[in-house]
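Consider this today:
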Amino acid sequence: MKLQGGRIEAFVARPDPKIRAVLVYGPDTGLVRERIDRLMRTVVDDPQDPFRVADLTPDDLKADPTRLVDEAAALSLTGGRRVVRLRDAADAVAPRVKAFLEDGKGDALVLLQAGDLPKTSALRKLCEGADDAAALPCYADEGAGLETLVRDVLGSAGLAASPDAMGFLLTHLGSDRQLIRSELDKLVLYMGGRGQVSLADVAACIGDTAALGLDDLAYAVADGDNATAQRVLDRLYREGTNPVGVLRSLQRHFQRLHLAVGAMQAGKTADQAVASLRPPVFFKVADRFKGQMRRWTVPLIGQALDLLLEAEMDCKTTGLPAEEMCARAVMQVARAAGAVRR
């Protein structure tokens, strides 16, 4: 069974009892871990309980091909339903999962924790097509999804973000669900009670560590500094940053450039155009941003945005290596910037 959209949250909160195996996969590893933990807690109070939780790896199944079936059929010495979690699940374990689904013994909930799986993945196809299994994709919290998360977390503490504060949060929280929640929890603690969260509150509390590398990349690309852009991109990949998140960050930067350059064409000065942006441009890079405004025209920015959007769609739909397609788009835009002479 394939789950999407709002059905995922409803399922995670209350899994269908007929589902015996759940594949949780995607590029947002923080969200994968969070959903695995929530699913475990629908069965056991303590995910570390050795009597009711079995933690397996692909190497365990390689050493003992029947291990998954045996663990799922085992009874807890202390009573109650068991959970079997298989970490780092990939296509190599698909035959073992298929054997478990066909075996039918035991009432354990089997949780398959995986990374980003393409549409052609055998494990993904198995769980999407089985009546007693489910597949839950986990993609980065972006756009409306991220805004909803921010509103929910702040709202539960009696807080609401001002428009400027929300804009800052959406561009500085990064894309990893666990990091996002950690930063929001810190903001809630900082506020210490009900009220409105201002831009000053957010700037004083929320760290830039999740977005710093992305900002470095965006400025290097828009400056036409391809060598620096590739070095920063390599660092982001090593840190586990999702290529789609990289492309979305670049799109946001060029959208802001588009707004600023358009404001100048409407008669505003460069300072006025930059001051009109929300969230505001960080003062340390304001002069650099103005330099990019002089370099880029509205038509050129439109071409860059088209290229970045096309790269994002390719990452999501072609099944080709997303990191390579993202790197190619970064290089193309940076070279275009380097070729501009204003």
In short: Residues 209-339 form a domain with the Zinc Finger, Delta Prime; domain 3 fold (CATH 1.20.272.10). The first strand starts at residue 21 and ends at 25. The chain has a mean pLDDT of 86. The chain has three domains: 6-137, 143-205, 209-339.
